[in-house]
Specification:
Elements (H helix, E strand, L loop, with lengths): L13 E5 L2 E5 L1 H4 L4 E6 L23 H15 L6 E2 L9 E3 L20 E4 L5 E6 L3 E7 L4 E7 L1 H5 L2 H13 L7 E4 L9 E2 L1 H4 L7 E3 L5 E3 L1 H11 L7 E2 L15 H4 L6 E7 L4
Parallel strand pairs: 4-7, 5-6, 10-14
Antiparallel strand pairs: 1-2, 2-3, 3-15, 6-9, 7-15, 8-9, 8-10, 11-13, 12-13
Length: 277
C-alpha cells in the first residue's frame, strides 16, 4: 500500500493488520504497557460505496447495523470490547467531560446522555474513549504518573477554542495531573498544504500558522496550532508526537472530507486504560 508520510524525520504511526482490518497506533503511547490506543483506517468493515468500508459514523450511513458491526469488527481486532466504548457528541466545541464505568457503551450500545461534548477524560480502566474525524485533529493524552487519559476532537473551531488546553486543565483538576508528565499525540488529520480556508476562519489564528495564497485565501496549519496550544498548556515539547500522516493526502487509506468533497465516512480514535498491566 502506497502511504504518503508527511515528514520522514518524524516517528511514523505503527500499521497493524488482522485479517482485512487495518489500524494505526502511536509509538509514544505504545511504549506505555497500561494503555491501548488505536486509530482506524478505511479498511476491514462492511460499509459500501463512498463509506467503504470501515465507516464509524451513524450520521452518515442509513444502516446502523453496518456501523455497529464495524465497531465490533474493529474492537475485536484491536483487543477491546465495543460495549466499553464511550462516545462524544461532536459539535466543534471546547467542552470536555469526565466519564467512567457507568458511561460505557454511551453512543454505541446505548443512547448518548449528553450533547456538545468534543473531549473525554477518565482514570478508570476499560473505559474506551473515542472521537471521530475525517480531517479534524484527534488529540490523545496520557498521564503515566496518575494513570489518567484524555481524548479530544479538534477541528478549526476546537483548535481556536484551545480544546487541547481545556483537556489538560480538566485532567489537572480531576486527577491531579502535572502537565509536565503528560504524553500527547496529535493524530492523523489534514496537513497545512491541503487545508485552504477563508478570512472568516483565518482571523481566529496567529499568523505563525497561516500562509496567504495568491487567491486571497489561506493555508492553515492545524498541526502547528495544536502543538503550540499543548506546549503553552505545559506539556514538554519532547512529549508531543506529531501526526506525520495527512488524511487529505491519503484518501484511499483514510477518510478525508476535503479530498472527497464530503462524500465519506468517519474514522475513529480510541484510547483506554487496560484493566491489567
Amino acid at each position: 500500500m502506497d502511504i504518503k508520510w508527511h515528514d520522514e524525520h518524524e516517528e511514523k504511526p505503527i500499521l497493524h493488520r488482522k485479517d482485512s482490518v487495518l489500524w494505526l497506533s502511536f509509538p509514544l503511547l505504545d511504549r506505555e504497557n497500561w494503555l491501548t490506543d488505536a486509530f482506524s483506517t478505511r479498511f476491514g468493515g462492511v460499509s459500501r460505496g463512498c463509506l467503504s468500508s470501515m465507516n464509524l459514523s451513524f450520521a452518515r450511513e442509513p444502516s446502523n447495523g453496518n456501523v455497529l458491526k464495524n465497531f465490533r469488527i474493529l474492537s475485536d481486532a484491536v483487543g477491546f470490547s465495543s460495549d466499553n466504548i464511550i462516545s462524544t457528541h461532536q459539535t466543534h466545541t471546547a467542552n470536555v467531560r469526565h466519564v467512567g464505568a457507568a458511561d460505557r457503551g454511551s453512543g454505541i450500545s446505548k443512547p448518548l446522555p449528553w450533547k456538545n461534548v468534543d473531549g473525554l477524560i477518565t482514570d478508570e480502566p476499560d473505559c474506551v474513549l473515542s472521537v471521530f474525524s475525517a480531517d479534524c485533529v484527534p488529540l490523545f493524552f496520557a498521564d503515566p504518573v496518575r494513570h489518567a487519559i484524555g481524548l479530544s476532537h479538534s477541528g478549526w473551531r476546537g483548535t481556536a477554542g484551545r480544546i487541547g488546553s481545556v483537556t489538560v486543565k480538566a485532567m489537572e483538576k480531576d486527577f491531579g495531573t502535572n502537565p509536565k508528565d503528560l504524553l500527547a499525540v496529535i493524530g492523523p488529520s489534514i496537513c497545512m498544504e491541503s487545508y485552504e480556508v477563508g478570512e472568516e476562519t483565518a482571523q481566529f489564528f496567529d499568523g505563525r500558522f497561516l500562509r496567504k495564497k495568491e487567491n486571497g485565501k489561506y493555508l492553515l496549519d492545524l498541526w502547528g496550532a495544536n502543538r503550540s496550544v499543548l506546549i503553552e498548556a505545559g506539556i514538554p515539547e519532547e512529549n508531543i508526537e506529531m501526526p506525520n500522516l495527512c488524511t487529505a493526502c491519503n484518501p484511499d487509506f483514510l477518510f478525508s472530507h476535503r479530498a472527497s468533497h464530503g462524500q465519506r465516512g468517519n474514522m475513529g480514535s480510541f484510547l483506554s486504560i487496560r484493566s491489567k498491566y
